[in-house]
Amino acid sequence: MASFGRRVTELRKEKGLTQAALAEAVGVSKNTVSVWERDVRKPEFDTLTDLCSFFNVNMSYLIGEDVARTEAPGAVPDDETAALYVLDELVEESEPIIKKYMQLGNEARTMINAAINTAYKYERENGELYKDGRMVRLQIARDEPEE
């Protein structure tokens, strides 16, 4: 299975583009494209969809899955592919914060929890939660040890 970075490099070269030209086409910096191609980071979901449109490929193909390169015109990523990508992005962004949080003592954790609860209450009271009618729901599946 090819990596996301390898697919971006391959598609960019097929179009005869430099990293700078691709960056300009999708509205990011040349350094960002370089980071993608080296598989250091992946783009945000909106940028990923822009890349799919630009290269005329489906998302599953672009993120490295062994699938057909394109789907029917106007096809959108299936819910599972989109959800997995967003979850992967969330985990990547959250991991360093969670690692630091886990090393804190109870008093520091209590302070952080209070700050989060206060910010949440403020946002809820001011109608800032669930923008665009979206409701965030997180369910973490844990593998149970086999007996």
How are the SSEs placed, and which strands pair?
Blueprint: H1 4-14, H2 19-26, H3 30-37, H4 45-55, H5 59-62, H6 79-103, H7 106-125
Sketch the topology as an H/E string, one letter per element: HHHHHHH
The averaged pLDDT comes out at 79
Number of helices: 7
CATH topology term of the largest domain: 434 Repressor (Amino-terminal Domain)
Shape: elongated
The parts where pLDDT drops under 50 for at least 5 residues are 132-136
Radius of gyration (CA) equals 19 Å
Name the CATH superfamily classification of the largest domain. Answer: lambda repressor-like DNA-binding domains
Distance between the termini: 32 Å
Considering DSSP H and I runs of 4 or more, what fraction of the residues is helical?
Answer: 55-70%
Structural description of this entry:
The protein has 147 residues and is mostly helical. It folds into two domains: 4-62, lambda repressor-like DNA-binding domains (434 Repressor (Amino-terminal Domain)), CATH 1.10.260; 79-133. The chain is built from seven helices and no strands. Helix 2 crosses helix 3. The radius of gyration is 19 Å and the shape is elongated. The model is unreliable at 132-136 (pLDDT under 50).
Give structural attributes:
147 residues, mainly alpha, 434 Repressor (Amino-terminal Domain), 2 domains, 7 helices, 0% strand, elongated
Concise synopsis of the structure shown:
With 147 residues, the protein is mainly alpha-helical. 59% of the residues lie in helices and 0% in strands.
